[in-house]
Amino acid sequence: YSSPEIWEEVPYSYQSDLWSLGCLVYEMTAQRVPFDADNVYQLMKKITDGSYETLPKQYSIEIASLVQLLLNIDPEKRPGCAELLEMEFIKKIEKYLEQNYG
Question: Does pTM surpass 0.85?
Fold first, then answer.
């Protein structure tokens, strides 16, 4: 799950890990990888362009928005961890987990 900045060989930060999180969320929901190609050059092009299919319609707008935020090709526009934890639907998931799994 290499981010665009890794493919472009520019300095990268933890924001690259958030790209990888976006890829994981995408794959868990869509049941396919967000970026797939016949060769490494096509793969690099798709990743650096941020070209992927939207999530299936059965998923909430919150999940689709989360993936879109995390897979932003500009690392500065990806949310940070604190920002993710402040998202209302993430707080609801956290509350549910606390109540049911303590």
Answer: yes
